[in-house]
Specification:
By secondary structure, the protein is an alpha+beta fold. The protein contains twelve helices and seven strands.
């Protein structure tokens, strides 16, 4: 009876603004959890949570010395969090900003995008067949100027021939990454940050770790061609997809760089498939008759 009275009073005091407040807080916490999922921040957060639980235990059990140590340590936890989680905080803010600013391309830009994607796929397949290593990074919303400055500036129109030439082992630009910005090769032989993820397979070399590292720090995507095996990989948000063929690579590039056009292309493909199925059914009916 007492519980029902309290519940009734609580519901009477509840306002629609409280519901909005709860939903906003829930969305923020959920977004933060998604941003840190799969990163080293998870283990660090668990460690900090353990320290907080230890302090609560000292309060419950009345352990004065432990309380004194923990209380004075907690004063510096705010600064410690900023220092420890600086890369994750920077990455999260960049991803939030990139989601708020999506580029819109029309007319010739769409045609240029199709040609650029086709050139990247053809170059990747050629490098793979020759067992020539390559690392191609495509800039999206977060600028890569600090990485471009580490390489040799080209600012050249993207083409199949230029990409294959850049990664030719006999040229001085083959070692490093080629960064693509606005359908141009902005720079080649660029140095990228290596990922610190300890769970990666040992068979992934420096190129793959650099590709994962730059996609963890920014919203860029990367295409990696293994020099040892010729395997083509695609990296986005620190996640790698390997053993790709040309069709799958093209789909991943389209979906990452221009997701709207990818959806349109998939709709057209489904319509064509449905039309083909209808035609086959009609042919079958004709033979049956």
């Amino acid at each position: 009876m007492v519980f029902s009275d309290r519940l009734t009073r609580f519901l009477e005091q509840l306002q629609w603004t409280d519901l909005i407040d709860f939903l906003i807080v829930w969305a923020i916490i959920y977004g933060l959890l998604k941003l840190v999922r799969g990163t080293r921040a998870v283990q660090m957060a668990i460690g900090l949570l353990g320290v907080g639980l230890l302090y609560q235990v000292s309060v419950v059990l009345g352990l004065e010395s432990l309380q004194f140590v923990m209380r004075n340590s907690l004063l510096y936890f705010g600064f410690a969090i900023l220092v420890i989680f600086a890369p994750e905080i920077r990455s999260a803010l960049m991803r939030v900003g990139s989601n708020l600013r999506r580029p819109i391309r029309f007319g010739r830009a769409k045609k240029a995008g199709e040609d650029a994607h086709e050139a990247i796929v053809l170059a990747a397949m050629t490098l793979s067949s020759r067992r020539t290593g390559g690392l191609i990074v495509i800039e999206r919303n977060v600028g890569l100027q600090n990485y471009i400055d580490t390489g040799v500036t080209l600012d050249a129109m993207l083409s199949y021939d230029l990409l294959v030439t850049v990664f030719d082992p006999h040229t001085p630009l083959h070692d490093g990454a080629a960064i693509i910005r606005n359908y141009k090769i902005a720079a080649a032989s660029c140095f990228l940050p290596l990922t610190l993820n300890p769970r990666l397979s040992k068979e992934l070399g420096t190129r793959h770790r650099a590709a994962i590292g730059v996609t963890e720090d920014t919203d860029a995507v990367a295409i990696v061609i293994s020099e040892e095996t010729g395997v083509i990989s695609f990296v986005e948000n620190g996640e790698i997809a390997r053993y790709l063929n040309s069709a799958r690579l093209r789909e991943l590039i389209d979906a990452a760089v221009e997701p709207g056009r990818r959806a349109d292309r998939e709709a057209v493909r489904r319509e064509r498939s449905a039309g083909a199925e209808t035609s086959r059914e009609r042919v079958s009916e004709t033979f049956i008759k």
